[in-house]
Amino acid sequence: xxxxxxxxxxxxxxxxxxxxxxxxxxxxxxxxxxxxxxxxxxxxxxxxxxxxxxxxxxxxxxxxxxxxxxxxxxxxxxxxxxxxxxxxxxxxxxxxxxxxxxxxxxxxxxxxxxxxxxxxxxxxxxxxxxxxxxxxxxxxxxxxxxxxxxxxxxxxxxxxxxxxxxxxxxxxxxxxxxxxxxxxxxxxxxxxxxxxxxxxxxxxxxxxxxxxxxxxxxxxxxxxxxxxxxxxxxxxxxxxxxxxxxxxxxxxxxxxxxxxxxxxxxxxxxxxxxxxxxxxxxxxxxxxxxxxxxxxxxxxxxxxxxxxxxxxxxxxxxxxxxxxxxxxxxxxxxxxxxxxxxxxxxxxxxxxxxxxxxxxxxxxxxxxxxxxxxxxxxxxxxxxxxxxxxxxxxxxxx
Length: 398
Description:
Strand 3, helix 8 and strand 4 (208-211) form a beta-alpha-beta unit. Helix 9 packs parallel to helix 11 (258-279) and helix 10 packs antiparallel against helix 11 (258-279). The protein has a single domain, classed as Alkaline Phosphatase, subunit A (3-Layer(aba) Sandwich). The chain is an alpha/beta fold. It has an eight-stranded mixed beta sheet, with helices on both faces. It is built from 14 helices and eight strands.
């Protein structure tokens, strides 16, 4: 069963139009390129990419990876990744072969899609002195009408894409909801910040923006992107199917339910990506994946807006570094994070924070050997291992 049939026809029509626009955008020249020319391929020094046996056997959080994929599974409930359900999701099970927790949390005040995805990419909560301030969850207006994170904030707000792109990495964003166009409007050609670090990589912080309303299509596009990319890369992919099923049929955690089937659909999509990594020596052992979610769901029925309910705010956070590493508790690796009680979401301003989806961007940058996002608040307080951690707020600025 595909969840495409659960998408209203007008949205599918809009999505098709957006796909065409995105395809045209992907071919547009970047700053510094000759008119109509493709950006020069970014090469990686082979000596720098060599991964010897000692490095492979060392702490994976001390290694530097060439490729990083951040995966957001919209509306994924972590109880699906527990026994006995996990047997139905072999590729999720594979991603659990590494540091992970099924007790991460959403933003402390919002369990809806756009605010939490902005947190993933910027390392900021929604509210507070370092908050990103975006609370809407609908289609954004045009960039000139306020549909930009920077316009709403009143100042430029850096993302993980800024850090990676300015460092010379290739970047991509694959979405399966049209409202994610907000990120192209915020970090595309007209809205990205000027690169003031080293060689000028241009203002467009996202090199390639992809859209697909079917799980298999968007997963296949990302697998192809990873096979074709030249040089190092930071990539983001969003799977909408579980959220669509939850809103249409409710979050019924039972084999055969539309929600359960939708997560199996995502599992197959993850399998497509993992197969591409396994088959390519330039990706195998050099690619890491950070997987999390924007929210769970089911309270009230067919939604996820009750901020007091753990079914909505409890999420997974998985860090896969190529397999072969023993499964470990991410909280035990993160000395400055505290596992919350089962019924607790955690206070935004508490000194001891739980692991949140807002950590995704800085964890990704850490695994790429890059500095944290300017202005960020979350990030598992680099580094996550034995070295001295960076205190909360050390990299914060507005």
